[in-house]
Amino acid sequence: MRPTLAVLVLALLLPAAAHAAPGVRTSQFGMNVRSSAVGARAASGHFVTKPLRAPRRYDLVGATWRRGGGTLWLRGRRAGGHFSRWVRLGLSEEKSRGAAHATEPVWAGGDDFVQLRGTQPLTGLHLSFVNAHVPAASASAVHKAQVGLPLGGQLSITPRAAWGASRCRPRKSAGYGSVDLAFVHHTETLNGYSRSESPSVVLGICLFHRNVNRWNDIGYDFLVDRYGQVFEGRAGGIEEPVVGAQAGGFNLFSTGVAAIGDFRFSRFSSAGMNSLAQLLAWKLSLNGVPAEGTVTVKSNGGPFTAFPKGAPVTLNRISGHRDADQTACPGNALYRQLPGLRTRVAQLEGPVSRLELTAAQPKLLYPQSLAFSGSLVPAPGIAIPPGATVQISDNLANGGRVLATLPLAPDGSFSGSLPLAHNDVLQASFAGGPGMPKLVSNVVFASVAPTITLQSSAASVTRGSTVTLTGSATPPKSRLTLEEQELRGTRYRHVRTLKLRTLGGSFSVTLGLSRPGAFRFIARTARSRSIQAGASAPVGVQVG
């Protein structure tokens, strides 16, 4: 049985010389390949390394290097076996660990040796390995999520728990944006994986993205294998507009689906394309996005796209990764399948309805309530069912917590208000009805700042006297700061900052004032994940 530790290759239990070929130095994250490991080099700069023994058996491998270019190929084999065919390593968008160049990982499925060849010399070449075996028993023991397709039927989505995501926990909680279009990717892993190996492939990609690329989580929102199995990708909820790391400059308003395999020359399988179409039909219709046609979005810029920040970019609602970024993804063969995919998704979607949610003033001062409104816009010819309602929810990453259920007016509009004690992300949902699938709205981000009061025991005191300052923070905060400022000329200047603890959100502090002048005090709380920063109104004290 293969090792089950889902980590990057760690320091060896035996000396490196016992495992590595000359010219290879192992490290905590893999191995550094030195020039002495190169077995043959032509005058043109082409090179081939000796077979290199990996620090331990690996399932995925990728490369980084500091200088050099050209094309890099890789092949692997198990001890006592034969080498696989050469596979070209596709360049990644991520500059890993300070390296100038990085590749996407290649699936190996338990190899011991690796060999490289390239068209140009490379400086600082480093290989990173991932062991990601998921036992079949653990994968089959988890029930798959079932989602309803727009025109009937069910789509099975393998949840994160079934591919071992507990061994690839996100670095931080999910972020949310919108779904205005979908990008299709390929993972550039080998195409010869078995059905039972697919969960391990997904886990390996997640570990590589998190531990080598240093991303928060796996980059894709969903993955589809050649057998038609669909896998939940990035954490945050399959129905939600989770912001991935799959299309640099365009992640905030897209969803990303990766076909597992390398499709530069080979077409994606019929089973894979069928599930890809069903997945996109469900996800796009859920968000009120038609499969066909275009949408114009503004690029967020960055090093991976040719479109500068703020530039309007018109893209197909179902686009290939290459349409937005400087990459060959999803491969020429799969890219040629996209027109047919759009047609098929449109057929599966049927008429597209949409649900919208807005908040006129999403920045609140506690205990203000958030006022919101929205509308359900049915597809032409579709009527809103009598007595229909929408639910307003938060806690999206955990399936949603219903905060309010509101009736829909005959024209599809709804409105309401909610008291909020902390920052929140809200979304409206409609359960579906005749001619309409389940719908979710865009998300609304609400921020809440605490109310901070501050009073002085006196407005004026004599020099050398004391003054007592009292106040409170609601919602209660255990710590705050009190800043003292002095009027110098026409401006108040900082004198000192005191750190205070509260009791149930209330505080009291007595200060000595030793010199004459005009002073003022401001109480503040710092920003946290749950609430914004807050400040009291200034309180003045004249010292005579």
CATH 4th-level superfamily of the largest domain: Peptidoglycan recognition protein-like
Number of helical stretches of at least 4 residues:
5
- The total beta strand count reads 36
Under CATH, the topology of the largest domain can be stated as Lysozyme-like
* Proportion of residues in helical segments: under 10%
Major sheet, described briefly? 10 strands, antiparallel
State the low-pLDDT regions, or none.
1-28
The first-level CATH class name of the largest domain: Alpha Beta
Shape: globular
CATH architecture descriptor name of the largest domain = 3-Layer(aba) Sandwich
Mean pLDDT: 88
| Class inferred from helices and paired strands | mainly beta
Tally the structural domains. 4
Radius of gyration: 29 Å
Distance between the termini: 83 Å
Q: Percent of residues in beta strands? A: 35-45%
